[in-house]
Amino acid sequence: MSFDFHNQASEYHFAFVNAENSWNGLNLRLAKWICAIDVIKQYPWIGVGTGDIKDELVKAYIERGFIYGAEKRFDPHNQFFETAVGIGFAGLIVLCFFYFNALYEAIKSKHWLFTAFLLLIIFCSLTESVLSSSQGIIFICFFVFIFTRLIEVAEQ
Predict the structure, then answer these.
(1) How far is residue 19 from each of residues 53, 69, 85, measured CA to CA in Å?
(2) Membrane topology for this entry (predicted)?
(3) Which end of the chain is more exposed for a tag (fewer CB within 10 A), N or C?
């Protein structure tokens, strides 16, 4: 998959007639991720702050000539990159601990529904900023709480 940051074409998801000249889900995400990595390299330890993620990404988009991304003010479309941009590697470590500690506990207790749920959330986090909206936070925290409580009850 290739792309040109200077491409001014719009997104086109549903057919491959103009695939070479249009942004699609894959090349658009790759461009966003490259720019997110640029920002992470500038602020690796403490990030830019959660309120400045899009502003810093827009600067990175402009530096790369990704005008379409700057105009649309895209987020990184990856929860791991979003966390690293916003609160640095320390925040990324906490996020990974949250995900993978819960996954470890689910596997250890042989709670396969919880395991499947966590794997789904982790994989969704690779292509979407699932915790950047209150709906995502509430959904994930609600089910992690419910499943964790079910594990505690089953162990008693």
Answers:
(1) 30, 18, 30
(2) Multi-pass membrane protein
(3) C
